């Protein structure tokens, strides 16, 4: 563990933000101080908004939608704003990365890389805004012509989590804006800064007032009120399956708003004996440790073919021990701090449960003693059985559970033995084997001989209890539209009333 040398990256006083509604900054009546999870010093001061502030935002978004100041523009005009915003992200890359590090605890090199992905999201969404279109039906006979129009769904509420505050925002917001919808965003309270910085960037890029609004505060108060709000036409939620379920109840009990949900995962990584074991071990170490395992697509269940299982776990443990855990401002750091104290307790609690249930620690298994901040060693458990809690629950930390299999059928059954279906990865040089697993394991995202690869061109989302709907790509824009079927009669009507 390297010395903590945060240097000048820490602010002398917390940066104070307002909340953003109708193109203007508003002062919060009550404020909340966020402390850096790696350094324990206050870094930002964020408004704890009231439900009146939320109403103000929803009204502004509604006006902006209804008067067509955004949805009435051409796709090209919306694309121009999104491309200018992409440039704004490029200009302010270091600033955004710094506040991500300060609030989330992730390494600065990773945060900067994520912003490159966010720029790509804006550029992809800009292209999609230009390409979004309906369809035509020239097959209804000469007297009738049909078409479908794609219309923006209206005012969208967006609730984002703390693990990828800016990345998840940018995998949603530009696509929602591309569709012509207007937005009210509620970021996780502990990581609100970069969602607010985006308000500044979008304003500079020329987005009309009221199109992008941000209301900060707690999930219990503002998040819940947003899910129940009758002024919201669609809600996109990313977070825990428990809160996802409460969004479904809130929608059912209010205005039946459409829901997009990206929820938990307990994602399998299947390694066959014929895989390149060094490559697969590198992928497995990355898949569980990236972002300290606080990733909905973390591959947290290793399913490895028995004849190579022991050797593979040895190679993997050696690699996990080399991961550089430490000060997120050190450019060499690969994994930083655990973002919240609650999450830290949850992860350490699962490590204790794993030991108590009889699984064997191959490497890791403890918090790092640093004097400040919260850091956990990447941890590998072997001898895990399907009924153990570390086999079933989403831990959301750098804790990998290893299972062994003898046959292809057994590997597929183990992979599917979960209520979740977010992502999966298979490692094999045998194309028949790799493709069979890809087709039969239930997951919204799949990687063959790689892991967590891909850009904003392809859609993301889950099977089973991992969620509803898709984000990013063209599908990620279409999700925020509704289809209107239109029929046009040409020529003289054939009359119903004949006498
Ligand atoms: P939550 O689901 O509570 O938080 C996600 C977002 O929802 C945050 O913006 C939060 O606001 C908000 N929220 C909280 N309660 C409500 C509510 N009743 N109505 C509407 N919005 C609400 O996740 P946690 O932060 O509690 O993390 C718990 C677990 O969830 C993790 O251990 C992990 O397993 C999973 N998780 C999964 C994520 C994913 O990407 N799929 C992301 C984050 C967590 P606020 O934080 O301000 O309270």
From TrEMBL:
The keyword Oxidoreductase is annotated on this UniProt entry: yes
PROSITE patterns in the cross-refs: ALDEHYDE_DEHYDR_GLU (PS00687)
Keywords: Oxidoreductase
InterPro entries: Ald_DH/histidinol_DH, Ald_DH_C, Ald_DH_CS_GLU, Ald_DH_N, Aldehyde_DH_dom
Gene3D superfamilies documented for this protein: Aldehyde Dehydrogenase, Chain A, domain 1, Aldehyde Dehydrogenase, Chain A, domain 2
Aldehyde dehydrogenase domain segment(s): 27-486
Active site: 262
Record-level Gene Ontology MF annotations: oxidoreductase activity, acting on the aldehyde or oxo group of donors, NAD or NADP as acceptor
Family: Belongs to the aldehyde dehydrogenase family.
Protein name: Aldehyde dehydrogenase
């Amino acid at each position: 563990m390297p010395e903590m040398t945060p240097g000048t990256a820490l602010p002398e006083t917390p940066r104070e933000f307002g909340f953003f509604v109708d193109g203007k900054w508003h002062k919060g009546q009550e404020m909340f101080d966020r402390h850096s999870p790696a350094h324990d010093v206050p870094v930002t001061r964020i408004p704890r908004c009231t439900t009146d502030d939320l109403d103000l935002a929803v009204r502004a978004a509604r006006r902006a939608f209804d008067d067509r100041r955004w949805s009435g523009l051409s796709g090209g005009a919306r694309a121009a704003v999104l491309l200018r915003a992409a440039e704004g992200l490029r200009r302010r890359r270091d600033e955004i990365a710094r506040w991500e590090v300060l609030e989330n605890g992730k390494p600065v090199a990773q945060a900067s890389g994520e912003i490159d992905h966010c720029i790509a999201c804006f550029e992809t969404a800009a292209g999609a805004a230009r390409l979004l279109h309906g369809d035509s039906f020239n097959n209804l006979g000469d007297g009738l012509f049909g078409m479908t129009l794609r219309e923006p769904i209206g005012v969208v509420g967006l609730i984002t989590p703390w693990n990828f505050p800016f990345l998840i925002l940018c995998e949603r917001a530009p696509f929602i804006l591309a569709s012509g919808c207007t937005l009210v965003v509620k970021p996780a309270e502990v990581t609100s800064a970069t969602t607010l910085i985006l308000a500044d960037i979008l304003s500079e890029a020329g987005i009309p007032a009221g199109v992008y609004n941000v209301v900060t505060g707690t999930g219990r108060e503002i998040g819940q009120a947003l899910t129940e709000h009758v002024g919201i036409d669609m809600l996109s939620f990313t977070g825990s399956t428990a809160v996802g379920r409460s969004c479904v109840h809130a929608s059912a009990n209010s205005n039946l708003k459409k829901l997009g949900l990206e929820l938990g995962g307990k994602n399998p990584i299947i390694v066959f004996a014929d895989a390149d074991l060094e490559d697969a071990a590198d992928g497995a170490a990355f898949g569980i440790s990236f972002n300290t395992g606080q990733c909905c697509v973390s591959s947290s269940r290793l399913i490895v073919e028995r004849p190579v299982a022991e050797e593979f776990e040895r190679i993997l443990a050696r690699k996990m021990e080399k991961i550089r855990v430490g000060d997120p401002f050190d450019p060499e750091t690969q994994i930083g701090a655990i973002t919240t104290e609650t999450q830290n307790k949850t992860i350490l609690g699962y490590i204790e449960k794993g030991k108590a249930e009889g699984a064997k620690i191959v490497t890791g298994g403890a918090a790092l003693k640093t004097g400040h901040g919260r850091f956990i060693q990447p941890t590998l458990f072997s001898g895990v059985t399907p009924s153990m809690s570390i086999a079933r629950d989403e831990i959301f930390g750098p804790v990998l559970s290893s299972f062994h299999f003898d046959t292809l059928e057994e590997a597929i059954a183990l992979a599917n033995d979960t209520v979740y279906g977010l992502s999966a990865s298979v490692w094999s040089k045998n194309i028949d084997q790799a493709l069979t697993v890809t087709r039969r394991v239930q997951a919204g995202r799949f990687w063959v001989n790689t892991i967590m690869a891909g850009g904003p061109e392809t859609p993301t989302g889950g099977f089973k209890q991992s969620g509803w709907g898709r984000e990013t790509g063209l599908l990620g824009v279409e999700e925020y539209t509704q289809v209107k079927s239109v029929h046009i009669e040409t020529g003289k009507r054939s009359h119903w009333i004949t006498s």
